Amino acid sequence: MGITKSEIFTEEQNRIANMAKALGHPARISILQHLFQSDSCICGDLVDKIGLAQPTISQHLKELKNAGLIKGNVEGTSVCYCIHKENWMEMKKLLNSFLDSDISTTSECC
Amino acid sequence: MGITKSEIFTEEQNRIANMAKALGHPARISILQHLFQSDSCICGDLVDKIGLAQPTISQHLKELKNAGLIKGNVEGTSVCYCIHKENWMEMKKLLNSFLDSDISTTSECC
DNA sequence: TTTATTAAATGCAATATTACAATAAAGAAG
DNA sequence: CTTCTTTATTGTAATATTGCATTTAATAAA
């Protein structure tokens, strides 16, 4: 049905999956990398540097904002985006708690 | 169009996004957690423990296999799945290289 | 006020994803 | 061989995602 059955999973499983999903598109990875280098906070700059149309970039920015990973600030006619540091660190902690599952105690049965 | 323009992004950006995408569903997080606890390598056990139909679990297992994160081994009529340790560690390194982008040198302009 | 400039919102088309019923395939048990 | 068990495959429906042209909104500049 294209709809995820979130209710049968734990809060943690849903949060991890949602964060991973937000990172699950190369345009959004590219946007975040640019924001980390902080040489292009402005939406228009991102449109120029990444080869996608303005509405498409705007949409990806919206998703990153919904995920809490970035924040935007209106400056005249343009909008300045940047990493939401606090949420970013929280996301990192959440993902790492999962990624660091102890692989040494796990049996590779195949 | 529902189709990602992979060709305009770097190989690294696509690889990071693809790995994140594979982790972008709570059922797949749940499957991986079970495999880490290794108390249910068998596909049928996962179907019982997670509340999704057998074809749905099978489909998620296939995606995790395509992403290289797990491997499967036929044992009689049943199939035993487990974490692909080598690829898992590689994925972790890849994601961490991105997640660990130096946040301290980044300006929070908003 | 009029005219740019910039970004968000809307609307649409194409494709992808999620989920499951029904079926097929492959081996085990009788 | 027949039957049972287990998993993959196929087909289908519903929803989500990606991408862009067009329009709208809001501020700046003239």
From TrEMBL, chains A, B:
Q: Where is the HTH arsR-type domain?
A: 8-106
Q: Which residues form a coiled coil?
A: none
The lineage's top-level taxon is Bacteria
Kindly give the InterPro entries that the UniProt entry links to this protein. ArsR-like_HTH (IPR011991), HTH_ArsR_DNA-bd_dom (IPR001845), HTH_MetalResp_TranReg (IPR051081), WH-like_DNA-bd_sf (IPR036388), WH_DNA-bd_sf (IPR036390)
Query: What keywords are annotated for this sequence in UniProt?
Result: DNA-binding, Transcription, Transcription regulation
Which terms in the Gene Ontology molecular function aspect does this entry carry?
DNA binding; DNA-binding transcription factor activity
What NCBIfam families does this protein map onto? Answer: HTH_metalloreg
Q: What is this protein called?
A: Transcriptional regulator, ArsR family
Q: What is the species listed in this Swiss-Prot or TrEMBL entry?
A: Salinimicrobium sediminis
